[in-house]
Design goal:
- The chain has four helices and 20 strands.
- By secondary structure, it is mainly beta.
- It has a single domain, classed as Porin, CATH 2.40.160.
């Protein structure tokens, strides 16, 4: 399972300027059969390479999109595609390719077989160079067409008024095109991060009252790295039997069992609380040195308050394991870095001042520690914040402005980076 918090403003476009995920979510609420929109924005990005070797550039963004929403009685289907073109003046001045191109697509389906059986299907695809767009584990800009696809299916069944079940399956696919590094001591992103993540589980839900639902859940997750390349220099074991240990991508494969309890409660008509907590048992069965199992806590807590029409506040906390592009083995144990264990606090405020002016404020703090490897027990701090303003000029045209900040404070030398981005532009919608 991945970290569950995905902030629309923080997981923004390649330049971190537009909120493609937020746009796609909004598309699902449109009463029209189809919708066409486009953003034209000027921006300044002071670290477009998303690295410690900071480089800044002015530029512009053009992002057209098209979506469709169709209702067939018991079935609702929606689809959206967004193309992003980002032009960086500094790269053009240096004789480099000034363009970043991105593609994002969303598909969702809701079907009610009857009043008791309901099916929900979602799929979200992103293709680009920015780590916050693909969300695949890299922390720096990766050249090439890098793809992240996340699909989920959930079947909900109401067996009685008090008891229901939710069976779910998820599939995440990450493919990095940068596989040019063949040196085991300097592996490519493809070798480190190309993988398939799958999970399947069930929630047993008890409806204690119309506003209160408690549940017990189980989830089985299996992660398979398929970069098929060396990710660390070989190590020679001399005792008790001499052998050469080869570290390949699949050495970080693991299975995980999740068990948790949860409660969802609508405290007031406009205040809702959700809490889920438990633990995961992680089986690092393919470690070439010493296969092992470990236990990690798991939590997902959120509070949502709608204080006026079109305005709400959401705050929450998550704790889970996740993939990382760090794999260097420990000099003492010679075990690879298996994954990170991350705690995330977030705040999301959406405020509508009036019928024309609205604002979104997002904040996130994440602390992650490395499991095993050369940096086992060490941590990284990640801070993200953004503010976006939208002024509706008329039915079809809006003016937009925003600022995004991110800062990675890493215990690994040369890994940290900070980034500031501002934009100003227009959005057209028809």
């Amino acid at each position: 399972m991945k970290r569950l918090f995905v902030s629309a403003g923080l997981a923004a476009s390649v330049a971190g300027i537009s909120s493609i995920h937020a746009q796609s979510m909004e598309a699902g609420t449109s009463p029209k059969l189809w919708n066409v929109s486009a953003n034209l924005r000027g921006f300044y990005d002071d670290n477009y390479s998303v690295s410690s070797a900071q480089k800044g550039s002015f530029g512009f963004e053009f992002s057209p999109s098209i979506s469709a929403n169709v209702a067939f009685g018991q079935t609702d289907i929606g689809v959206k595609y967004t193309f992003g073109l980002f032009y960086y003046l500094q790269r053009a001045d240096n004789g480099l390719n000034p363009l970043d191109l991105t593609h994002t697509g969303d598909l969702w389906l809701d079907h009610a077989f009857n009043e008791r059986w309901k099916l929900n299907v979602t799929d979200s695809l992103a293709d680009g160079q920015d780590p916050q767009l693909v969300q695949g584990g890299a922390v720096v800009r990766v050249n090439g067409n890098n793809l992240g696809n996340r699909a989920n299916i959930k079947l909900t069944t109401d067996w009685t008024r008090e008891f229901s079940t939710a069976v779910h399956y998820g599939n995440n696919l990450y493919i990095y095109s940068n596989n040019s590094n063949t040196n085991a001591a300097n592996p490519s992103e493809a070798a480190l991060l190309n993988r398939i993540e799958q999970n399947a589980g069930i929630d047993l839900q008890w409806h204690f009252a119309p506003e209160t639902v408690g549940y017990v859940g189980y989830n089985y997750s299996w992660v398979r790295y398929d970069g098929n390349a060396q990710i660390a220099a070989p190590f020679i074991i001399t005792f008790p039997t001499p052998r050469v240990v080869q570290y390949f991508s699949s050495a970080r494969d693991y299975n995980a069992h999740y068990g948790y309890l949860g409660l969802s409660h609508q405290i007031t008509p406009n205040l809702t609380a959700n809490a889920r907590g438990g633990a995961s048992l992680v089986d690092l069965y393919n470690d070439p040195i010493s296969p092992s199992t470990s236990v990690a806590p798991y939590a997902d807590v959120s509070l949502t308050y709608t204080y006026r029409p079109g305005s709400y506040v959401q705050a929450g906390f998550t704790h889970n394991i996740n993939s990382t592009d760090i794999a260097a083995p420990s000099a003492a144990t010679h075990q690879l870095t298996a994954y990170q264990e991350s705690s995330t606090f977030y705040l999301d405020i959406n405020h509508r001042f009036n019928s024309r002016l609205s604002a979104t404020l997002l904040g996130q703090y994440e602390y992650s520690t490395y499991k095993d490897g050369a940096y086992g027990g060490n941590g990284d701090d990640m801070i993200n914040a953004s503010i976006d303003l939208n002024y509706q000029l008329n039915r079809h045209l809006a003016a937009q402005a925003g600022y995004n900040f991110s800062d990675l404070l890493s215990s690994i030398q040369g890994r940290g980076n900070a980034r500031n981005r501002v934009y100003l532009g227009l959005s057209a919608n028809y």
